[in-house]
Amino acid sequence: MQKRAAIAGVYGHVPDYILTNAELEQMVDTSDEWITTRTGIKTRHILKGENQGSSVMGIEAVKGLLQKTHTDPREVDLLICATITPDLITPASGNIIAHAVGAVNAWSYDLQAACSGFLYAMITGAQLIETGKYNKVVIVGVDKMSAITDYQDRATCILFGDGAGAILLTPSTSGRGIIHSVLQSDGAGEKHLYQKAGGSRKPPSHATIDAREHYIHQNGSVVFKEAVTKMAAAIQATLQANRLRLDDIAFVVPHQANERILRAVAHQVGLPMEKILMNIGQVGNTTAATLPLCLWQCEHRLQPGDRLIFVTFGSGFTWGAAYVVW
To answer: In CATH, what number is assigned to the domain containing residue 247?
Structure first.
């Protein structure tokens, strides 16, 4: 039987501090009713303290994963960290995480594809396992979105939270694992969801800081429409490519961007909401961490052999889906 990469374990981590809608009401012109109606979000976790970067959360997620799966960190061959909020421009947060958890024999790097980063990294790791060269690959999605969120902008500050999630990929010949994927991108979406300054095109300066250009900016209506269209199309393409019906799918594990987006996707595809796994109400949009965090927090609902579709959409634009047998 064909060798595939299977998810041998999943673990997540969120910071202790919880930012509620009531607290946001004191910061910007908003209300719990306004936030809940438009996003479905009630709380989000925020990483507090000095010198606390994304790797702090990534380390905790990977440590928990290795302990849960009884994996010696020295046996890890590769660690890929999906993030848009690395601790530093260089070295990669993946390097920092691998060192901290004792994965001394692994090579590691960061992958940046915004909210689609985890899915991109998971498929990359799976294909490397399929070559037969690697046996244990850790994929960690982590973002400290509070570091690039403008808490004076009510349209974006209500959305984002901090968190990390990680999976262990191992070879499998049982028929389970990551079966198929469709990954796409379109750079024309740049102007609708991006960080204006801080990169090589527009390095940090007093002017960029004064203009508040180091925060996430988005054209909400365009992003909403594109996310619904692209995620629905990715699910339908996955079903068609694998000759599956909606009834064959136990759950869809989607990027947690906005509950209204997820409801619109479900409606467009014809999928009942009880088949959509969601945790956005408790953690918000954690960008590259949403898929593994959702999987971790909803793991108790899964049974061996369940057919799952992972689906995502992010800035860039980036999007895609994967068919996974649990």
So the answer is: 3.40.47.10
Give the dihedral sign, CA 146/152/154/156.
Answer: negative
Last residue of a domain, one of 127, 143, 175: 175
Per-residue pLDDT of the chain (326 residues; tens, 9 = 90+): 678 999 999 999 999 999 999 999 999 999 999 999 999 999 999 999 999 999 999 999 999 999 999 999 999 999 999 999 999 999 999 999 999 999 999 999 999 999 999 999 999 999 999 999 999 999 999 999 999 999 999 899 999 999 999 999 999 988 899 999 999 999 998 888 888 989 999 999 999 999 998 998 888 899 999 999 999 999 999 999 999 999 999 999 999 999 999 999 999 999 999 999 999 999 999 999 999 999 999 999 999 999 999 999 999 999 999 999 99
Nearest to 279 by CA among 31, 22, 43: 43
What CA–CA distance (Å, rounded) separates 29 from 44?
18
- Domain residues for the domain of 311 are 179-325
Considering the domain architecture, whether residues 126 and 200 belong to the same structural domain is answered as: no
Q: What is the Cα–Cα distance from 168 to 293, expressed in whole angstroms?
A: 14
Of 142, 159, 175, which one is at a domain's C-terminal end?
175
Active-site residue numbers? 115, 255, 285
Q: Is the pTM of this model over 0.90?
A: yes
Clarify whether residues 213 and 290 are in a common domain. Answer: yes
